[in-house]
Amino acid sequence: MIAAALRTEGDGGEVFSRREAGRLDLPRNGDNIFSMTVQPPPPFRAHPHPQEQVSFNRAELGLILGLYGRMVAAGEWRDYALSFLRDMAVFAVFRRAAEFPIYRIEKRPRLRNRQGMYAVIGMDGRILKRGHELPVVLRVLERQLIRPVN
């Protein structure tokens, strides 16, 4: 066993010794100013039921981003934001980055068996369309792209 000891000046007492495994053996006399309490870190405990977040799946996000791309190309929309909360997911659309969202596309799974889990909500908070299928709900926004040519 390899051991090294450091001694304090004057009293000749052993401060600590280092052994092979990198452990630090502190003297147990307590009159040492260099002694410290070494405690192992607490074990990592994951939550038994982590809080789940509602999110858009790949197909839903594809439909929403397809509409977003067409509206950006038409010059109607400029920015978006995503929020994934415990009870709903929100895709917010902005005309300018420093504004309130002009539209919010929400997914609320709790309303699946009632009015439908998808909704398009306007800037003033009114529900423009609610339904069980996302493509049907998004049609209310696609109507803005179809304008008469003057």
Give a short summary of the structure.
With 150 residues, the chain is an alpha+beta fold.
Task: Describe the secondary-structure layout.
Elements: E1 4-7, E2 14-18, E3 24-25, H1 58-73, E4 79-84, E5 89-94, E6 103-107, E7 118-122, E8 127-131, H2 134-142
Antiparallel strand pairs: 1-2, 2-3, 4-5, 5-6, 6-7, 7-8
Helix pairs in contact: 1-2
Organism: Albidovulum aquaemixtae
Protein name: DUF2794 domain-containing protein
InterPro entries: DUF2794
Account of the 3D structure:
This protein folds into 2 domains: 1-39, no CATH class; 58-142, no CATH class. 17% of the residues lie in helices and 25% in strands. The chain has 2 helices and 8 strands. Strands 4-5-6-7-8 form a 5-stranded antiparallel sheet. The chain has a 3-stranded antiparallel sheet with strand order 1-2-3, with no helix packed on it. The longest helix has 16 residues, at 58-73. The radius of gyration is 31 Å and the shape is elongated. The protein starts with a strand and ends in an 8-residue tail after the last helix. This is DUF2794 domain-containing protein. Pfam families: DUF2794 (PF10984).
Could you state the order of secondary-structure elements as H and E? EEEHEEEEEH
Q: What is the structural class?
A: alpha+beta
Mean pLDDT, nearest integer?
Answer: 77
The main β sheet shows up as: 5 strands, antiparallel
Query: Helix tally?
Result: 2
Please bin the fraction of helical residues. Answer: 10-25%
Got a strand count?
A: 8
Coarse shape:
elongated
Q: For this entry, what is the oligomeric state of its chains?
A: single chain
Distance N to C terminus:
93 Å
The main sheet orders its strands as 4-5-6-7-8
- Report strand %: 25-35%
> Compute the gyration radius: what is it?
31 Å
Whole-number total of structural domains:
2
